[in-house]
Automatic annotation (TrEMBL):
GO terms for cellular component: membrane. It comes from Aspergillus oryzae. The keyword Transmembrane helix applies. It is found in: Membrane. InterPro entries: MFS, MFS_trans_sf, MFS_Vesicular_Transporter. Keywords: Membrane, Transmembrane, Transmembrane helix, Transport. It holds the Pfam family MFS_1. This is Unnamed protein product. The lineage of its organism: Eukaryota, Fungi, Dikarya, Ascomycota, Pezizomycotina.
Length: 300
């Protein structure tokens, strides 16, 4: 939710600040957010510090009484841990984790779908402001505010995540339906061509619908990535080392999203300039429709 909201809020705030504050105002906002991000990172507490602090107290009577039971359990765990493979060395752990995760068809599918979603969503960053300016003669503020239609549906993202927690087996069907539903919505953008109230309402409605599809898609992908790591670790304990690979897997998903965010504006702008507004919808819709088949085939 936060990733997509932040991505769509950028053009919104940038357009408003550019019209009312000038050229340097959007950069001031960006630098201010970077400073806040740095401060918040310094305020974060490492979970290992919390664990060490909680274990630093003096032993109580109950702790002394349970010492014998713990020693017996430790002996049993020693025999189990002796069969666990040694973790990778620090200098090769990241490379090994990458190869292990990328050998999973499920992980490749999740990363590919996330990249396609990012590409489709960020394509509007370069196309939509110019389109509404040329078609509706909107200024920078209105060009930015149109992205609210993409951002508002993200409010319902926790509800879609709740449905996955409630019915886990519906995860891949939820993602596949959202991908298929995005196809006709993107194709219908071709019908927005005139400077009339009906076409303006149609554009806002289509943006809200495609934003809803993106909001439905993100929770299944995140859960799928986490599930892949847990499944690999359960089958091969210790394969990712002591710290595991959950954060590393989410890092790969961020890389996929960032790659799509770089490709999207270029792809959308190039297709619209070369083949027109109507063709852009098809170009964005076809990969989403094809990826629904991959989701049905590989997601669990």
């Amino acid at each position: 939710m936060a990733t997509i909201v932040g991505t769509t809020a950028g053009p919104l705030l940038g357009g408003v600040l550019y019209e009312h504050g000038g050229y340097y105002a959007p950069f001031g906002l960006a630098f201010g957010l970077l400073v806040l991000d740095f401060i918040f990172r310094l305020m974060m507490v490492d979970s290992r510090v919390i664990v060490e602090h909680s274990n630093s107290g003096h032993p109580t009577t109950s702790d002394e009484e349970s010492w014998t039971d713990k020693s017996i359990l430790d002996k049993k765990q020693t025999s189990v841990e002796s069969r666990v493979p040694e973790p990778l060395h620090d200098n090769s752990r990241s490379i090994g984790s990458t190869l292990i995760l990328l050998r999973s068809p499920r992980m490749l599918t999740a990363l590919l779908v996330y990249l396609i979603i990012s590409t489709s969503m960020t394509s509007f960053d370069s196309v939509l402001p110019i389109f509404v300016h040329n078609t509706f003669a909107w200024a920078q503020t209105a060009q930015g505010l149109i992205f609210i239609c993409l951002m508002v549906p993200q409010v319902m993202s926790p509800l879609y995540g709740y449905t996955i927690d409630r019915w886990p087996r519906l995860r891949r069907y939820q993602a596949a339906l959202a991908l298929l539903g995005a196809v006709p919505i993107l194709v219908c953008f071709r019908y927005v061509t005139q400077n009339t109230l009906e076409h303006k309402v149609l554009l806002c409605a289509l943006l809200a619908l495609i934003g809803t599809c993106f909001a439905i898609l993100e929770p299944p992908i995140m859960v799928e990535i986490s599930s892949i790591v847990e499944q690999i670790q359960s089958k091969h304990p210790g394969i990712f080392g002591k710290g595991g690979a959950t954060a590393f897997a989410y890092g790969l998903s961020n890389c996929a999203f960032a790659a799509g965010a770089m490709v999207g504006p270029f792809l959308g702008g190039w297709v619209r300039d070369t083949y027109g507004w109507a063709t852009m919808g098809w170009v964005l819709a076809l990969p989403l429709g094809a990826s629904s088949l991959l989701v049905l085939g590989f997601f669990r």
